[in-house]
Amino acid sequence: MISVIIPTYNSAETLVKILESIYKNDFKDFEVIVVDDASSDNTSEVIKGYLVKYVLLESNRGAAFARNKGSELAKGDILLFVDADSEIEEDLLRHVHEQFRVSDYDVISGAFAKEPKIENVFLLFISTLSNYNFSRTDFAFSTHLAAIRKKTFIELGAFDEYYKSATTEDFDLFYRLITNGYKCKTNMKMVGYHNHNFTFLLY
User: Fold this and answer.
1) Which of 25, 32, 89, 130 is buried most, with the most CB atoms less than 10 Å from its CB?
2) What are the extents of the domains in the chain?
């Protein structure tokens, strides 16, 4: 089973898009765990329309804590981390399942598509640059779209909750994966889309 873990904070609008894209997948052996990091928007209402495990934290603890909380509840042997402001392709879950079934990789990381689904010049630049950077390396870990064996995640000690801001916990786990000799791969067929309306001042 694949456990899809989504940390969210005041992202009700984009959360709907990622959930819709997940449930469009033809692979059905999965569960979805949404960890709400004490949102003040209508996330708790929006989530009622979907068959998910929903956890509402009493206080804002950061993305690392939220992802760890989701992994504790996960029943799957594969953890798939995605962001609340993203979307996935309709065949992505099946592709993840097959990749782990036929290989001994501990971690498989995906990449943003070159072109986003929403029109935003800053997002287009970020998506294109991110796709290029991921295509130039054998492995780069990013929790916007990354699958890891649950036993590997436990062995590593999960995300370091000292890092409350997003992205920092990615780099820390990436370092531990590499230095401890785990088998890791970036798969450019594992494609996601970012749905954040970036601006010149916020990117």
Assistant:
1) 32
2) 2-194
